[in-house]
Design goal:
By secondary structure, the protein is an alpha/beta fold. It has helices spanning about 100-105, 145-170, 170-175, 180-190, 205-215, 235-260, 260-265, 270-280, 290-295, 300-315, 335-345, 355-365, 410-420, 445-450; strands at about 25, 35, 50-60, 70-75, 85-90, 115-120, 195-205, 220-230, 400-405, 425-430, 460. It has 14 helices and eleven strands. The two termini are about 35 Å apart.
Amino acid sequence: MAVMIKKLVGPVVAGLVLVPSAPAVASADTLHWRPCREIANEWPADDDRSECVMLTVPVDYAEPGGRTVELAVSRIKATGRRDGVILLNPGGPGASGLDMPRSMLQSKAAGIGVHHDLIGFSPRGVGLSAGKECPGDYTQPDPALSDKEKERFKAERDGRSQARCAADDPAFVRNLTTPNIARDMDRIRQALREKKIGYYGTSWGTALGAQYRTLFDQNVDKMLLDSVMAPDFDLTAIDRGQMTANENHFHEFAAWIARNDDVYHFGTTAPEITQALLDLRARPTIDRGRVDYILISLRADWPKSAAKLVKLRDGALLGPDDGDDGAPLKDWEFTRFQATAVQCNESTGTRDFETIWRNRLDLIAKLPVSGGHGKYDRRCVGWPFPATPWQFTRGISPLQLVGHSYEAVTPIAWAREMREQIGGALLTVEDDQHLSLSKIPCAARAVTFFDTGKTSGDSCPGDPIPPVVAP
């Protein structure tokens, strides 16, 4: 549900937002485009195709004549006969789609830009769209505290920080919601003078698409949602779904190691491998948390992850090249406080720490490798505003859902639940990669869909597991 940094759950990135000088500001009546490199800090200097504009929208749609905020919007024009526009969103919440037209044209789904202008934007509260960061409190709990009290300390610490930041501008923060971002999308449609828009959303962007279609189905040309969120935004359920899928990754990885015992020598059956790896993780010299990330590796990483486990088994230490962290994002790409605000303004489920802890213990008992790594359950402890749950309904506009058979970030069951709620056809990609459609040959289905409206309810292959390499 986010731009992925390789962890068990979503992104953990933050940065300062640099406000551009003298941006081109537009209303729904006029747009004055400029090269994006003149507006966004660190934009590639050689990009001559991406154009950007700042669009004015209301902070509160219940008071359309009141306070306003500016949204950063980008565009790359169609290269062929133009049939309309496609808005793009990469997920999050908290992630910017400002450079998504450019990245889409570098993907296997680039064909959607032949007959459509590709439109990116930073949602309200993200980066150049009035992004607001919350200074973090990194005070650590007393090491003598129990695990439970350490977690309570962190939850309450973060809750106080978030509440302070929300109190700086409660009117704006309370309006950081998926329905308002969907309404912003319709203002973009109006500013572009388009009767209808296409939409390609991934991860949390699939919930944004479902919300836009619920509110403005008559304004949708075609909509594609890849790596689909569940229709009910319950943070405890999100942790349970993601961690269950990660535990499945572990068992599938163990079975793969067993099939390749001639290379790795851990054992010849999945149960044997499972026990051997749990025993390895329990060694006093092992960083258990770090090993857990290796144990739930994606299929593309299985050969190198198995080699790391051999290294640990044989007494070697993991080096810096054995890490699993991604590259930091630029200041306009991700805004963590917006992610928290949207999640906490809308998520259901308990915010009581005692209940959260009991749920966590239950999950650990069921999922010994991944159960303790969920991070969403305590995110909204202390949030000062009540939640308004998502309300999605069916529509009649063409809708293509895309799920991934073995994915852990947005498990395939969520796509089925969303299809039951809002309709559409579900294309299944046989892989475990989050939002991979644009990266594989099956991306041709997306191009066909946006060109013809033809949906698909079958499946297509993902990338194969890489060949075994001796450690």
